[in-house]
């Protein structure tokens, strides 16, 4: 008997009723890569209603440019998560067509880092103005997890990114977005997440989750237009890091089918996550060029949650 993949409901795009747990979290995440301009970026809003705060992350990176980080981990819980405003930033979201089209804008005074590892060390950069106005348009099947309240959507991304007065126009470049709600403990587990877009139109997503005293958990999909979505039954990530704890390469093995994909890192956009009790999770994120063992190529984002 074939089990059909789960899909989110259009109503899931909005905020959800919080649970009582301290680390109950709701997040909206967005990324893009424009290989022609060698520019990648990611945006995330994370709500922690039981801690009366939110995280805002807007990061841009690529070879030959500093990593630009508009980060605030102490935003007061917003009355409206679709319109977040502080003295230093503005972040808005708009569901223009549920599960199909989503607009995000952000602006503020960010910090530029010539050494992206400085973000993992908690160092400050130099001030730079940044803004973006981007739309994510769905190009695949929205996929809901079975093991968590979360969904992932492959997209193309169009709009404008402005960094220090320089404008970058994006026209249907590859991207991903996701929405997650529930208890999320960065300091209780490690994982490697990926969202990859191959040149033959295949979209891959997977996460390799490592929880102490439990067997590894792998979740994700392989999908291409006109073909059934295939749920992954296993995701294994083997990563290497440099002396500054930035990723260099990662090899992903996806089941079924023994698909092997190797990521060569191009742009770094990490963050450092500090718990109230002082525990630190290093959270390097990067966009990469992808090659598969069967000769395909592509591009996408990866993240490595590492408790140190």
From TrEMBL:
The residue range of the signal peptide is none
Ranges of compositional bias, category Polar residues: 1-10
InterPro entries attached here? DUF7064, DUF7065
The DUF7064 domain sits at: 186-308
DUF7065 domain residues: 12-58
- Residue span of region Disordered: 1-20
Name of the featured protein: Phosphotransferase
Species this protein is from: Mycolicibacterium confluentis
């Amino acid at each position: 008997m074939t089990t059909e993949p789960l899909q989110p409901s259009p109503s899931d795009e909005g905020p959800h009723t919080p649970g009582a747990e301290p680390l109950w979290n709701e997040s909206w995440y967005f990324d893009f890569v424009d290989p022609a301009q060698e520019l990648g970026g990611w945006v995330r809003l994370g709500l922690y209603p039981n801690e009366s705060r939110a995280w805002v992350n807007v990061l841009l990176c690529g070879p030959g440019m500093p990593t630009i980080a508009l980060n605030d981990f102490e935003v007061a819980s917003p009355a409206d998560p679709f319109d977040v405003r502080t003295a230093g930033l503005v972040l808005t979201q708009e569901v223009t067509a549920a599960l199909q089209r989503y607009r995000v804008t952000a602006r503020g005074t960010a910090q530029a880092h010539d050494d992206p590892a400085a973000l993992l060390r908690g160092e400050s950069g130099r001030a730079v103005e940044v803004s973006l106005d981007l739309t994510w348009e769905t190009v695949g099947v929205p996929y809901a997890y079975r093991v968590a309240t979360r969904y992932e959507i492959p997209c193309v991304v169009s709009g404008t990114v402005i960094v220090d007065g320089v404008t970058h126009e994006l026209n249907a470049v590859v991207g991903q977005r996701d929405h997650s709600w529930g208890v999320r403990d960065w300091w209780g587990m490690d994982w490697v997440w990926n969202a990859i877009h191959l040149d033959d139109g295949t979209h891959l997503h997977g996460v390799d989750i490592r929880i102490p005293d439990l067997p590894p958990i792998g979740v994700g999909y392989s999908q291409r237009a006109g073909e059934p979505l295939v749920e992954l039954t296993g995701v294994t990530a083997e990563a290497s890091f440099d002396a500054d704890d930035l990723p260099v390469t990662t090899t992903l093995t996806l089941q079924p089918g023994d698909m092997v994909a190797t990521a060569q890192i191009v742009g770094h956009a990490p963050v450092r996550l500090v718990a109230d009790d002082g525990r630190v999770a290093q959270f390097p994120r990067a966009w990469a060029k992808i090659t598969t063992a069967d000769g395909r190529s592509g591009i996408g984002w990866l993240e490595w949650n590492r408790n140190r």
